[in-house]
Amino acid sequence: MIHEYHMTIGGRDASAKAFLDVINPATEDVIGRAPDAGNAELDAAVEAAQRAFPSWAATPWADRQAALVHAAEVINENKEELAQLLTLEHGKPLAEARREMDTSRRWCTSLATLELPVEVVSDENGRRVEVRHEPIGVVAGISPWNVPVSSAIWKILPAVLTGNTIVVKPAPTAPLTVLKIGELLRDVFPAGVINVITGGDALGPLITAHPGFGKISFTGSTATGRAVMASASAGVKRLTLELGGNDPALVFADIDIPDTAAKLFRSAFFNNGQVCVATKRCYVHEDIYDAFLAEMTRLVAGSLVATGTTDGVALGPIHNKAQFESLTGMLDTAKAEGLVLIQPSEIPSGKGYFLAPTLVDNPPEDSQIMQEEQFGPILPLVKFKDTDDVIERANASQYGLAATVWTKNRDLALDVAARLDTGNVWVNEPLAFSPFAVFGGRKQSGLGVEHGLRGLEEFTNSKAVTLNFES
């Protein structure tokens, strides 16, 4: 019998009249059912969050920090069960699912060390000016399917630490692990502080238009982000948008080829390339291009594509059918354009959304694979000769999320990093997320920031208080 999961509203189980089937992408079998919430369930969740807000906002900061530490302990105690469920519903290798639980636990303990104290702007002659950070109210967190647990945690923690309450909606294709975490956290936070609801594509617009939310934190595609922004504008809701990217890597001629190729392989193919900041365009200096391409080909050939629970698996299936069809369509276009595709890996036969990891050899800049975000295991490698030219090409995108620079020359790295029009630049390492470092995109890659003190401030209203007691 297929298990039906429950939402968390007001600290209790909640269901809906309809359910969504959740598919294992490795087998295409239904492995669970999640409630398909509508207006009634959304209203109930918002009302529960509103009831909980006054007392939670008044809870001392130290007590809220302690709750985050307790949440980390609960996640760690249930790590294996949660990781197994995540691999089942998402498809990612079990080792990666375990790391996602570790990342979530680490974020809990790390954010628990942060504070937003009153900032004293001036204090002299009996006149004092302070800037205070106060909770907004009820926050909506809408998280994606690619890293469903981490992305939900990255919304929950800063919201509740700063005194807000939250209603979280995970993606309809990967909601089960987040629903389970919602159940586990009922014993950590007061009823109504954290509410988790699920639903199909119709639920998102209901959330963004709901008058009960003071802020929306959304992670997903740029197209959907624009719709969220338009919907939220009617109520002038506070927004944080983490959207798409077409993230370049710039590989200079002085690098160690095996070491850099191994790191860039992870940057491009981690989570099957289904990461907003995965390397999606790899510019390689012409002096090392052939040797670098050969090493990348060797790494791809040695990568096992299989179900997420298979020993030694490097890449699981693509997460869902729609994304699988988008990627196969992109490969068909590349073939029609006459591009050179390198696909040395075997993939499982039969059911499952398995796709061979693919390198594209020196495609033109105006090809689809260079212009659009693939969000999958397809990496174009392109030759460059001149530094100024490659920076211009890297910046010639509607996106500006992340970039990586690979060189042994510190001065060159700093110069290139300063000239790249992205919110994040990582030198000689990929995917360098930190709970203490700000993360955000430029251009159509997002609005606002996450993580660190600046990320906490995004979940607050600032208030300037001037006190004049001059004699």
From TrEMBL:
The organism's place on the tree of life at top rank: Bacteria
Domain named Aldehyde dehydrogenase: residues: 17-465
UniProt signal peptide: none
InterPro entries in alphabetical order: Ald_DH/histidinol_DH, Ald_DH_C, Ald_DH_CS_CYS, Ald_DH_CS_GLU, Ald_DH_N, Aldehyde_DH_dom, LUC3-like
One GO molecular-function entry: phenylacetaldehyde dehydrogenase (NAD+) activity
Active-site residues annotated for this sequence: 242
EC number: 1.2.1.39
Enzyme class: oxidoreductase
Entry keywords, A to Z: Oxidoreductase
UniProt record similarity statement: Belongs to the aldehyde dehydrogenase family.
Name of protein: Phenylacetaldehyde dehydrogenase
Gene name, Swiss-Prot/TrEMBL: feaB_2
